[in-house]
Every structure is written in C-alpha cells, then in structure tokens.
Amino acid sequence: MDFALFVTQLVNGLQLGVMLFLVAAGLTLIFGIMDFMNLAHGSFYMIGAYFFGTIVLLTDSFIFGLIIAIPLTAMVGYAIEASIVQRLYTKSHLDQVLATFGLILIFDTAVHFVWGADGMSIPTPDWGNWLVPVFGAELPAYRLAIVGVGLLVAFALYYMVVKTRLGMLIRAGASNRRMVQALGVNIQKLFGIVFAIGAGIAGLAGMMISPITGASIGMGSEIIIVAFVVIIIGGIGSVQGAFWGAMIVGVIDTLGRSYLDGLLMLFMSSGNAETAAPALSAMLIYILMAVILVVRPEGLFPPKVR
After folding, report:
1. φ, ψ dihedrals at 258, nearest 5°
2. In sequence order, what are the beta bridge partners of 131?
3. 88 and 95 Cβ atoms separated by less than 8 Å
C-alpha cells in the first residue's frame, strides 16, 4: 500500500469529518436541548456558502468573507427561530419534520431567486494552494486548514459548554427545561441563542468547503442525513459525541471508498469486487449506525446528564 496515498486519503477523511462535525454540532445542540427535529439545519450550510462566496467575490478577501458571513448566517438562524421555529416546539416530531422540510424548499427557492440556478464558484485563497509535506505526502494547505478550523471550533464549543455560564444554562436546559425556566431563565432567549450558534457553525462548514466544491442549491440536503447519522453514532445532545462520531464517519467513508475494492479482491474476483465495493462503501456508515443502535442505543459518547 502506498503510504503517501493513505495519508492523503486519511486527511481527506478528516476533512469530511470536520464538515460533518460543524453541521452535526449545532444539530445535536438543537435536538438535545430543544427536542426539536430540524431537517432545515443543512440549509444554513448552504446559506453560509452563498453569503461567503458573495462577500469574497465583492471584496476579494477570504478572511473578510468569514468575518461577515458567519454572523450573517447566525442572524438568519435567529430570525428563523424567532419567527417560525418557536411555534413548533410544542408540536410533535412529525409536525416538526414536515414544517422544516417546507423550510428547505423555501430556502432553496430563495437561493434560486437571489443567486440563480447555476451555483457559485469561489476561489481558494492563494496560500491554500501551497503544498505541505506530511509523512511523505504533499497536501494542499487549505485542506489542512479545514482540519485545523474543525479542531479549533471543537475546542471552543467544549469550552463554551463546560466552562461558561451560557454552557451551564445549555446543559441545565438539556437536563430539565422546566426547572431552568422556573428559576427565572428566559428559556426562549436561550433557545434563540443556541439556534443562532448552531446556524453560524453550520454556515461556517459551508464557507470552508465552498472553495473546493462550490456553492449550489440543495447542498445542505446532501449533508444533513449524514449529520443525523453522526449524532446517532456519537450520542444525541453531546458535542463530544458529535466530534468523535463525525471523525469516525468521515474516515470510514473515505477509506472505505478508496480501499474496500482491494480488500474484497482477496475474497472474490476483481470484476465482482469492483462492482460490489461502491455499493458496500456507501452503506458502511449506515451499517455502523445500525450496529451502534443495537449495541449502545444512547451512542458512543452520550451526555453525562440526560
């Protein structure tokens, strides 16, 4: 096995894991605290990419694009929570799923109306094309930066949840919402802040990946299902679980697509292996999720207090 190629694929898997974590972190906070099933969370991933791309193309500044687009996406999230989502907290999960699916259609149509149907190509910053030697492989600096941003956000979320007053309220709200409200905490304001944070983090994921994949209508719908798989594997309501679940899913998915055919060739003909490998590799993360649900239904890293 080519070790340099393995390192490249491993970094690609970590990059995918970072994208999934940034989406799943907000999703698990919203679901774990509010008990709210938000299928439209992936739309903030898309909106963030379009906001970011527009600002970068206007200002020719990658950093300025991030600085402006992250709070813009968070503000959209806060506005959606205040105007629509608040009315759905007391509804059943089925009602929440139907309503947020409608939000997906609204967001997609709005993006189509504002930016058109062709998508948007966003340039990679000049430094992103530098090649960095890593264990014999030469990797683009931008892909390593994505991994670094994911680790930084993971640490920041951990610090916020564990060390700050807001984090204390978030954990308390997840444990006993009515008691927190009885103690005088404005639970609606707390929910709005959490929803905005989740939207901003999901938007950041879209911003970081858009120079590689571009921004396109429906890109949020493609990642949201895998993000749900991540939080089920990691543990609903756990930021730590979202991180490790995302890393596991990203690495397994990427390495499976790269090496599963070679593994199957040890047991069957090359033609059958090449036919079976793509289908099986696409199923790996769902097989893992099914195993986790049977063996450890609460996830690998559930919250300490439920």
Report:
1. -90, -35
2. 140
3. yes
> Phi then psi for 8, rounded to 5 degrees?
-60, -45
pLDDT (tens digit per residue) in 205-260: 999 999 998 899 989 888 998 998 999 999 887 888 899 999 999 998 888 877 77
Contacts of 70 (CB under 8 A, 6+ apart): 48, 200, 203, 204, 207
How far is residue 248's CA from residue 166's CA, in Å, rounded to a whole number? 29
Provide DSSP, 16-69: HHHHHHHHHHHHHHHHHHH----TTHHHHHHHHHHHHHHHHHHH--HHHHHHHH
Residues 6+ positions from 87 with CB-CB distance below 8 Å? none
Query: Measured between alpha carbons, how far is residue 174 from residues 33, 122, 204, 285 in Å?
Result: 4, 38, 24, 27
Q: Which residue, among 11, 17, 42, has the nearest Cα to 225 in the 3D structure?
A: 42
Please give the pLDDT value at position 178. 73
Helices of type H across 116-213: 141-163, 165-175, 177-182, 187-213
- The predicted structure's pLDDT at residue 306: 47
Beta bridge partner(s), residue 132: 139
State how far the Cα of 221 lies from the Cα of 217, in Å rounded to an integer: 9
Res 174: pLDDT: 64
Cα 272 to Cα 86, 177, 235, 252, 263: the distances in Å are 52, 54, 36, 21, 12
Report pTM: 0.88
> Higher-confidence residue: 42 or 261?
42
